[in-house]
Amino acid sequence: MSSIPFEEFSRVVTESGVEGSLDFLEQHFRREQDFFKLFEVLKMRCRHGLGLPLIYSKQPDDLDETQQRQLEDCLLAACREIGILFFNLGKFQEGWMYLQPVGDKELNEKLIRKIESDEESIDALIDMAVSQGAAPVYGYRLLLKHYGTCNGITTFDTQSSRFDSEIQKQMAEELLEHIYLELIENVKYSIENAEAGSAVESDSEVPTSHENEERRLTDWLQLYPDLTAGGAHHVDTTHLASVMRIARPVDKRESLRKLSELAEYGSRLHDDFKYPGNAPFEDTYRDHQLFYDALLGENVEGAIAHFLAKTVSTEADQLGPVVEESYVEFLARLGKNTEAIEFLTDRLLGKFESLGIAPPPFELADTPESLQKLRDFYHSSDDLLGYAVCCLKAQ
Questions:
Q1: Residues sharing a CB contact under 8 Å with residue 249, sequence separation 6 or more, in sequence order
Q2: Which residues contact 315 (CB under 8 A, 6 or more apart)?
């Protein structure tokens, strides 16, 4: 640094005092793009505005609640500004250091999406977005794109629990979309290379390239009923089974349709590639197809009977509460809250600690009848708090 800024600053200090000096320093460090030092200047400006010493010391500041809040707001604004400046300069790791305390998820997402995900930046970008929680869904999409399904499943299983249910659901949708498109592309590639050409009858019309782009997985399964004959498969079957499990919470109709198609594909695999799941989805593909189809409004009563039967067969087993809560959650997703409350009060409440699978009883009790049923249960169980909540909710 030349001597000119020092001489200028000395003159400003003499002529303009603290306010002018801070203006000078702010302009200088902005011009030099020295944002670390600019942040220190902004901190001094925050303190000066509240009549505090410019520099922090071991002596704590004597601030009332309003002043403390003003100082914190000012410092967070400084963090936000410096974080954005670093991001705009392409230094996203430095920028994230300042944006973390701000907690603005929309801003994080907006800034991270502007970063070019090349070989040099991708690892740090995914770490910041997913592991550090800056933009988990977008970061998870990048991870799937650059590192594939296997890493995506491992990351979901190890890290998704850190995020709320909505973020987990969106991550599951990203994984679902990734494996669905992967399977479609592999099926088309297999057919185009005549690996499954014999699966179509000789008089069948071969789809054109344009038609291929628009076909769903079920279309291919109908056109080529022997697509998976002889143990053939077009995606890692362990990945397919994992997606059945991971994507259960999704609720968008299109996503449920894709899951049903994946389950149908899985049900056609050779037995060697049908891996058993956990209760109540032991028969991974059959159970999941019934589950997803019911959520789409297909064979609802048949699916309810199927999963209800599982609660009876596992009643004495240690998995009983898992299966029963899963059944209640299934009923709730079908909009059958009255039946869910009936089952809860008859089979679960007061007998087991909630596993967090089924929605809370007070959330399910959305009609006067179901609320009365729940209130009666708590009364007979001598549970004053539960009874009181029901009474208050009824008001």
A1: 165, 168, 169, 172
A2: none
For residue 327, the tally of other CB atoms under 10 A from its CB is: 25
Q: How is residue 136 written in tokens?
A: 């988990």
The alpha helices in 193-295, defined as continuous H runs, are: 209-214, 217-223, 237-246, 253-267, 284-295
Range of the domain at 354: 310-395
Q: Is residue 55 one of the residues assigned to a domain?
A: yes
Q: Residue 394 has which token pair?
A: 């009824």
pLDDT at position 319, please? 64
Instruction: Name every residue whose Cβ is closer than 8 Å to that of residue 112 and which is 6 or more positions away in sequence.
Output: 92, 125, 128, 129, 134, 135, 138, 139
Asked whether the beta carbons of 285 and 274 are under 8 A apart, the reply is yes
pLDDT given at position 39: 95
Residue 36 contacts residue 79 (beta carbons within 8 Å) = no
Domain boundary among 45, 71, 104: 104
Look up residue 273 and give its DSSP letter. G
Residue 241's pLDDT band, with cuts at 50, 70 and 90, is: very high
For the ranges 52-66, 93-107, 158-172, 301-315, the lowest mean pLDDT is seen at 52-66
The domain boundary, picked from 104, 139, 170, lies at: 104
For residue 209, what pLDDT band results from cuts at 50, 70 and 90?
Answer: very low
pLDDT more than 90, % of the chain: 59
**Structural domain includes residue 150:** no
CA dihedral for 361, 362, 365, 366, sign (positive or negative): negative
Tokens of 285: 């593909």
Flag whether 247 is in a domain. no
pLDDT interval class at 178 (50, 70, 90):
very high
Residue 16 lies in a domain: yes
Our count of domains for the chain comes to 2
Angle between helix 284-295 and 300-313 (nearest 10): 130
C-alpha 267/C-alpha 262 separation (Å) is: 9
pLDDT at 203: 44
**Mean per-residue pLDDT over the chain, rounded:** 88
